[in-house]
Write a structure and sequence with these properties.
mainly beta; Methylamine Dehydrogenase, Chain H; five-stranded mixed beta sheet; four-stranded antiparallel beta sheet
Length: 362
């Protein structure tokens, strides 16, 4: 199950002093994760501007309430390039870099252990996109239409499978991968892959353009957000608008249920925290909590008009504080932090094109 936090057996602070004390097994057993009681901090993923080599990795220290500079640059003396996704597993970080065409294995302080160029057999760039973890492996999608398996012990890519056009976000649960197939906005499938054999089992039909959100909920269901077709655009008749929608997939029967409109989602227990913001329909913009048991929606007092462009929502696994990214093109970004009931707490400044945050909790 992919989570937005990382469980630690032992952690040394301050961060820049090393962060090398964790002895987690890099082939974790499939035992259920314990419920965390303390959040130590979070990694901030800054994708960077297109082809500008200004992606970065930062650390938000919860104790000191400070944001570091670029961990990667500080440890390696160079920029990471771009950084689309970050997967935390065992004692290491796995950085996914599409235009730089690489997957980098990092120590928790950002130092490179190994850099893996991701090329097809013909030598063309695969352009890796998103990652998830399970069974001692990292699984990542790529724009060559594949999902690949990276063994965390040998640190090698051991298998890949064709899944469809422009695969994006994915999640692992019960021996299977569920993979959003966006088709660059033209597809409406979630591919199912057997994680052990790396064979594609089937496609599940969802709404148009499943993209950045594919998560396994605490209830074991798979939750997918389809981005639709830019509802509200003058170029599309209203009768053909497809709205951004959260769907729930039963991982055993593959039955799909449409739940509510959503752009970004974050799960905690039986709640889904949701941002809904159709680009062309500003009246739709809102932040709310969706009860996964009853379907009840509770609106939060968070005004999305305060954001230049909301880019993600995540939840602190302990406090349930709400973290919402705000992207400003060509400038440094920020993350706004709210209490679980939507009361504003603070803003932290981040890097270029901040796209996610990964919590470190125990």
């Amino acid at each position: 199950m992919k989570k937005n936090w990382f469980y630690l057996a032992l952690i040394a602070f301050p961060l820049m002093a090393g962060m090398t004390a964790c002895n987690n097994n890099d082939d974790p057993t499939p035992e259920p994760d314990p419920e965390p009681t303390t959040t130590f901090g979070a990694y901030i993923v800054n994708t960077g501007n297109w082809n500008q080599n200004d992606g970065s990795l930062q650390w938000y220290d919860m104790t000191e309430q400070t944001v570091s500079g670029d961990l990667y640059a500080a440890q390696n003396g160079k920029s990471i390039g771009d950084l689309q996704d970050l997967c935390l597993y065992g004692s290491k970080l796995y950085a996914i870099c599409p235009t730089s065409n690489k997957v980098e294995i990092l120590e928790r302080n950002g130092k490179v252990i190994k850099s893996l160029a991701t090329n097809t057999q013909s030598g063309q760039p695969m352009q890796p996109r998103y990652a998830t973890a399970g069974e001692g492996c990292i699984f990542f999608t790529a724009y060559d239409g594949t999902v690949s398996k990276l063994d965390t012990l040998t640190q090698t890519i051991t298998a890949s499978v064709a899944v469809g056009d422009h695969p994006e976000a994915l999640t692992y649960t019960n021996g299977k991968l569920f993979v959003n197939i966006s088709g660059y906005g033209a597809e409406n499938k979630v591919a199912v892959v057997d994680a052990k054999s790396m064979t594609k089992l089937q496609d599940i039909t969802v709404l148009l353009n499943p993209y950045t959100q594919c998560v396994t909920g605490d209830d074991g269901y798979v939750y997918v957000v389809s981005n639709g077709n830019y509802a509200g655009s003058e170029s599309i008749p209203e009768s053909q608008w497809i709205y951004q929608t959260m769907q729930r997939i039963d991982p055993d029967t593959y039955a799909v249920e449409e739940l509510c409109n959503a752009t970004y989602i974050a799960n905690k227990g039986d709640k889904m925290y949701i941002l809904y913001a159709e680009y062309y329909l500003p009246d739709t913009h809102k932040c709310f909590v969706y009860d996964l048991n009853t379907g009840e929606e509770t609106t939060l007092p968070i005004s999305l008009s305060d954001f230049a462009s909301p880019s993600f929502i995540q939840i602190d696994p302990v406090t349930e504080d709400i973290y919402i990214g705000d992207q400003v093109y060509g400038a440094l970004n920020s993350i706004r932090i709210y209490s679980k009931d939507g009361q504003f707490k603070k803003t932290i400044e981040t890097g270029m094109s901040t796209s996610n945050i990964r919590f470190v909790a125990e």
